[in-house]
């Protein structure tokens, strides 16, 4: 029985041709051709002035915080349920991450919890487009605007999603993307920062190149910076991917549609939500399972026995050893009831771009079987003896 992987990209002749051309020709005078083309195509798709190719989304978030001048003594609000890369750069710059609760429907930052977490030290909020979904940006922008708080949009999981017709990544002062092999668009590893803000863009360009000023040819570094670049081979792969983004998002939505056919009528479970204002690119199909199944770890194990790979919904950051000792995490554990309820029972189902309809049928049957197994404890014990 073929194992069904949890995620992975779509690579075609186009990607192979571009990367082959890059490794053959993108040297000497042509060294930057693919980075320029990828950045221009990415900026054009998103309707923004600037796109900067980077080694990762983590570095894009790091540069966003640095360019906004955020540092020691500042607080940055982050949703409790997200990949740690959303929050780790806050620590890199010496600021303090504050973990706000998520919304029970879209699983993204709750505007109410965001407002409740604001203090005089709050300088920015990192809004995360979780699993392709998007938070209520109208509400977030209103709260942030009143207090002079910058919105950074972590769109790592949401390339191709839209909020009120606006592309994911364009709802903050900067938008950040990941091209890790698991994401909707991939360059193997890689990232992008997009912005319409000229000052932020200029600052990012200096910081990402060891503190070199624009046009510096004499290696006269103006300050100590970082080395955050993407190779031309990765950029060639990325160019092919952004040229195919509409087809890739359409496929993600088709895969979600298959899951809805398989699981949409099951009682007691919840699949990804799509609000009226949102066009969801469904990076990861996710199911929240009933409490009686006993939590996500057992579900993942049971699926694995049937040759199906899955992943846990992000556990709240405030529950992780990485943060558990911080006073902010202690406060979050008491406050973020939705993060703890959803985080305990959510599982990401196989969502790779190579999935076939029959794979989703297999996953659907496995989940339905699990849900049908609710029997009294005595009967379960007896059955295991037979
Ligand atoms: C994948 C991911 C990142 C990090 O991306 P890298 O390119 O691995 O640095 C950041 N935020 C979220 C929400 C992600 O899913």
Automatic annotation (TrEMBL):
It comes from Cupriavidus lacunae. This is Glutamine--scyllo-inositol aminotransferase. GO terms for biological process: polysaccharide biosynthetic process. Keywords: Aminotransferase, Pyridoxal phosphate, Transferase. Transmembrane segments: none annotated. GO terms for molecular function: pyridoxal phosphate binding; transaminase activity. The active site is at residue 183. InterPro entries: DegT/StrS_aminotransferase, PyrdxlP-dep_Trfase, PyrdxlP-dep_Trfase_major, PyrdxlP-dep_Trfase_small. Gene3D superfamilies: Aspartate Aminotransferase, domain 1, Type I PLP-dependent aspartate aminotransferase-like (Major domain). PANTHER family: DTDP-4-AMINO-4,6-DIDEOXYGALACTOSE TRANSAMINASE (PTHR30244:SF34), TRANSAMINASE (PTHR30244). The modification N6-(pyridoxal phosphate)lysine is found at residue 183. Belongs to the DegT/DnrJ/EryC1 family. The keyword Transferase applies. Pfam families: DegT_DnrJ_EryC1 (PF01041).
